Please model this.
Amino acid sequence: MKKFLNLFILCLALSLVVFSNCTTAKALDAKPNAGSENLDQNNIDKAVEVFNHGQKKLYITQSDIDLMAKLIYAESRGEPYEGKVAVASVVLNRVLSPKFPNTIKEVIYQPKAFSCVNNGHIAAHPDKNCYAAVYDALRGSDPTNEALYYYNPSISTCSWMQHTEKKDTKSIGHHLFFKC
Model:
């Protein structure tokens, strides 16, 4: 019995080493060549997800995922699940757009970009649906048709949103998603 237990522990330890090496190899395979669109080499080493969009790749860290989940909770609490995915998609679409900063953190903390961001902080406690929406958007689900903006027309106080010409609009829940 003691031999069996020792063999079992050895097998378990080896499988953990192999699993660890496989996940590291997967992360290394996903790493870009020089000139990554959105991260410096230090952050690329921390990437846990890769978002592919055409020829572009975004290297996503766990802190990016956590920040997006907080934003989704704060911006779309009470909205349907599709609306949560849509908010995450807008963030990713902005990172990909030359009109906006090129990291998730910079897009979310861009001044006056999102009403829930106050003094560089988002007061939110995301739930599992918020994280699921982030991962669905990272897998390529975009119910907005690549929208860069959204707002709630019934409560918005932003005159720019109300009076700007909107293209490719789509209503999801209480939000209107669009391009300019």
